Amino acid sequence: MSGRAAPFHCPYCGDEDLRPGEQGHGAWECAACSRTFQLKFLGLLAPTPHTAKSDNTP
Hints:
- The protein is built from no helices and three strands.
- By secondary structure, it is mainly beta.
- It starts with 17 loop residues before the first strand and ends in a 20-residue tail after the last strand.
- The model has no long low-confidence stretch (mean pLDDT 84).
């Protein structure tokens, strides 16, 4: 995964008119609702073991 992934829509209003923000790395500005937000990749979740469903039919 690239550290420069861009959002597809604003998390507040859903509009797609986003531009990189001036606040620093990962900052975005929405022209539709005039909000600014920042995205940050925190990491990957640990995999969870898949439990098989038991079938109690004879």
